[in-house]
Each structure stands twice: as structure tokens, then as C-alpha cells.
Amino acid sequence: CLTALFLACITTARMFDLPRQALVPWRSIPGLRSLQQQSEYEQSDDSQSYSNLKFLHKTSSLNNIKPLLRVEQLTVESTNLNVPSLEINDGDRIGISGRSGIGKTQLLRALARLDPLSPNNTTMNTEDTVFLDGQPWSNISPAYWRSQVMWVSQDRPTLSGTPREFYRQILKYRSHRLSSEHNMTKEQNPQPLPASMAPMNIAQEWNLSEKAWDQPWNDLSGGEAQRISLAIALALDPKVLLLDEPTSSCDLETTTKIENTLMERKVTVVMVSHSEEQLRRFTTSMIELS
Questions:
Q1: DSSP per-residue codes, 25-36
Q2: For residues 172 and 194, what is the distance between their CA atoms, to the nearest angstrom?
Q3: Alpha-carbon distance 193 to 166, whole Å?
Q4: Exposed, middle or buried, 289 (CB in 10 Å: 0-12/13-18/19+)?
Q5: Disulfide check for 250: which of 35, 92, 232, 254 has CB 3.0–4.6 Å away?
């Protein structure tokens, strides 16, 4: 009886707001939450941990070098990630690490302007927070931006047809035609690229056979699809490549060849990887999301 009376007093004290002489709503009682609210609290606590961006290692750069891509106070609201300041110079290879689900992919998609901006589906704030060659992204069309700041997903493209057909279609798009040094003719066939820039020749260096380009996307292995997607992106010659686990389905030999190609061509890269060894081996700067 005494135990029951004691527990009743504790419950009453928690349910009654003595200063206001009023009952406390049950959702506000300490230690008492619904499953939905508990989940919301857990997500809120986790999201706060997403807000940190820390350089683990950064190469020194000359102060008079104009950054190729500059980020100021970018907020990726889907993961509550805030990037106070980030400068990417020509030739940088920046690696991004962090635990699964922390928002690494969402950061790359935000930089590539791939997610919609609307009051009900906000991915980032709408102010001018990202600059390419000194120009804010509000002055650059999304299509042209994506041709210069290009995201390459680790997932297999959900496309019909073959990779060769897909590449030919890409060359017909105006944004790529205007940004490429190899303009199309008035006919709807692209001019031949130099052999060193053709994606078929690039991927051949990565142990990919020529016949893979004429197979349906669904018939390709994960590693083949990754190499083809990266070779196409590299051939389109963007200013910045955003790579999301680009070699996760490749063996070490192929991964090393891909890294060597990117380094030899002095490609500016922002790469997400779960392999700390790869980040140490390949990148010039490392960022940790924690």
C-alpha cells in the first residue's frame, strides 16, 4: 500500500504543474513518450550530430587562387547538415567520410542541384550559397550547372537501351554541347572525340571490354555499370566530378587503375567512400561528417 501511494504521489507530481495549478499534457510528462514521439526525439538527436563538418587533412593552397567551387553557409535540411565554408580548387581531390545515413550522398546531390526546391520538399536553403567560377548558382541554369558539376551515383542507371546509345543521346543535349570543346555538327550526330577522351577508350584502361557498351544496362554487372557511368562523366569533361562510392563494386586492381586515371588527368573530384584506405591513398583533402 505504501509503495502504491508513493508511486501515485510521483505520478501526480509529474502530471500537475504546481506553479500554474494545471494539469500537464501527458506528452510533456518526463519519461513518458509515445513510440512516434520517441522516434522523433531520436531523429532530432541524431540530426544534431549531422551538423558537424570537419577537415581531417587539407592541402595548402595559394591565397591568390580563385576557387573553382565555393560554398558558403549551405544547409542540407534533409539531414540538418550545415556547411559553413568550403572551397574546392582546380585539381583538388576531396574525400568525404562518415557513417552510413549521415548525409554524404545528400551533400553531393545538393552541390549538383539535383533535388527540388519547394516549401514542402526543401533540400537546401534558396539563398546564393554555392558559386562556380565566382558566379552564384542563381545566375546559372540548372542544366548547365549539372553539366559542369556532375554527380555520378554508385547505383546502376535505370535506363533502357545500351550505354553507347545513352552516351550519344547525352551529346545531343544543348547544355553539354555548349559546355564541351567538341561541338556537334548541324546534324544530330556528335563530332568524333579525340581517342583519349572517348569514354570507350577510357573504360578500356579499366579492364572493360568494348562489347559491354552494346549490352542493355540491366545485363551489366555492378562493376561494369559503375565503370561505364564514370567513363561517360569523365568524357563529358565537367569542371567538378561528384563521385558517390564510384568503385564500390570494383576489385582493387580496377579501383587502382581508375584512381590513377583521375590523378593523371588532374580531375577535380569530391568523392564519398567508406574505404579509409582509399581516401588516404587517393585524396588530397579529407572531410569527416560526424
A1: PGGGSTT---HH
A2: 18
A3: 16
A4: buried
A5: 254
- Round to whole Å and give the CA distance between 212 and 33: 55
- pTM of the predicted model as reported, rounded to 2 decimal places: 0.72
Which residues are within 8 A (CB) of 227 and not within 5 positions of it... i.e. 6 or more apart?
Answer: 203, 206, 208, 250, 254, 258
Between the alpha carbon of residue 211 and those of residues 24, 78, 116, 185, 279, the distances in Å are 70, 41, 37, 27, 32
Distance CA 200, CA 192 (A): 12
- Compute and round to an integer the Cα radius of gyration of the chain: 25
pLDDT digits (tens, 9 = 90+) for 88-137: 999 999 999 988 888 899 899 989 988 754 334 444 444 568 899 999 88
Which amino acid is located at 274 in the chain?
H
Q: Which DSSP string corresponds to 70-107?
A: EEEEEEETTTTEEEEEEEE-TT-EEEEE--TTSSHHHH
Alpha carbon distance 128, 109 (integer Å): 16
Calpha distance 55→74 (Å, rounded)? 16
Q: Using CA atoms, how far apart are residues 169 and 138, in angstroms rounded to an integer?
A: 27
Count other Cβ atoms within 10 Å, centred on residue 27. Answer: 9
Burial of 163 (0-12, 13-18, 19+ CB in 10 A): buried
Picking from 114, 218, 232, 227, the residue whose alpha carbon sits closest to that of residue 166 is: 232
Q: What is the pLDDT of residues 27-70, one digit of tens each?
A: 333 332 332 333 333 343 443 444 455 655 555 455 567 899 99
